[in-house]
Amino acid sequence: MAKVIIQKEKQCDNMKYDVIVIGAGAAGLFAACSIKDKSVLLIEKNSAAGRKILLSGAGQCNFTNSCEMSEFLTRYGERGRFLKTALFSFTNKNAVEFFEKSGVETIAREDGKVFPASFKSSDIVEALIEKCRKNNVKIIYDESVEKVSRDEDKDMFLVKTIKNTHAGTNLIIAVGGKSYPNTGSSGDGYELAKSLGHTIEQPKPCLAPVYVENYPFSDLSGISFGNIKISLWRNNKKIKEFSGDMLFTHVNISGPVILNNSRYMEKGDVLKINFTSFPNAEEFKTDFENIIFSSGKYNVKTVLKSLDMPKRFTDKIMEITGIQEDKMCSELDKSKRKKLMEMFCEHSLTVERLGDYNIAMATRGGVKTSEINQKTMESKIVPGLYFAGEVIDYDGDTGGFNIQANFSTGHLAAESINKK
């Protein structure tokens, strides 16, 4: 167990709070407003709360998903098991009920994404702040936390900001990760956790578009593919397979299948993409060979229309492979056929980098989950210390899964303190 450094600071605030929450984002606001019959101080470094919530879903705030909770557990990579207690103690239905009781009408789309019916993220933020007000939570803004320590003699935490020092019996660190740093998510929570003895898994961007080497599709921006299959290769070994919708932009590849699985990708990895509707390369190659052989008197461009792919895409593939538009199928030699088939069903793109924190929607890495009690969100190292939200090493798929986990972990931390 890591050794906790005990530091003593002069107490400048006139009050010792039952709970101090650092960070007024989704997790911090929800934790603060869920604590009952206790004095709560919520500290926010920005001049207003919920800045990242206001950006979510392009300002519309897809705050949860309507899928079954059993599916939720599959939407956090390897972290579903860690989040199970939190997610089932405060579910997607609980989240909808919470906001509707707060006067926010909600709407669920066919794809499962749930929004405020107004499609205004400000409604979500205002509901959380109003709940904090009703529960007498004291919120202070424009105070960046510089240091936290625990005075074991007095059984309290000391939180030193740029303006003051605050004391509290319990401390919840809910400052988020590093994505969208202009909202205040600068990763400072990692340093606070480390100073209290916790280990930080190396943060990196996730839910991010992927930049590839020698990107060939910049002129196909806006073209998308539904439910395609992708395999991820590293050092000539296949390590992952996934499927979903993909999008070409003018500078990178994106769409849910890329964003959701960017957590697994590293520089130098190879993505082999099956743009066809066939379940595997072998079936497509057999079918394509038969089509080419039976269409000798037709040109290749005409035959490619049968693949039911965007014309601009098939034209681009012909350009990459160097096949002329008037080339007849009977004139297509074995090497050209092989290259053409690979372009459609095993198209290789090498990962150059992920989109940085300015465009990544979440952060992978953070406070090590094995050092947190998943049934309470309390530290296993420091009694009375809790974590909530993306400062913890978890990240969810696009579609409302991250914000729901932020609500759920914040709620579980609060409930754990309520039971003390």
From TrEMBL:
Q: Does the keyword Flavoprotein apply?
A: yes
Q: Which SUPFAM superfamilies match?
A: FAD/NAD(P)-binding domain, HI0933 insert domain-like
Keyword terms, alphabetized: FAD, Flavoprotein
Q: Which InterPro entries match?
A: BaiN-like, BaiN-like_dom_sf, FAD/NAD-bd_sf, RsdA/BaiN/AoA(So)-like_dom, RsdA/BaiN/AoA(So)_Rossmann
Residues forming the RsdA/BaiN/AoA(So)-like Rossmann fold-like domain are: 18-415
Which Gene3D superfamilies does the entry link to? FAD/NAD(P)-binding domain, HI0933 insert domain-like, Translation factors
Which cofactor(s) are needed, names only? Answer: FAD
| Annotated ranges, domain RsdA/BaiN/AoA(So)-like insert | 207-359
The organism's superkingdom is given as Bacteria
Give one Pfam family, short name only: HI0933_like
PANTHER family membership: OS12G0638800 PROTEIN
- In its UniProt entry, what is this protein called? Uncharacterized protein
Q: What is the scientific name of the source organism?
A: Sedimentibacter saalensis
Q: Lineage, please?
A: Bacteria, Bacillati, Bacillota, Tissierellia, Sedimentibacter
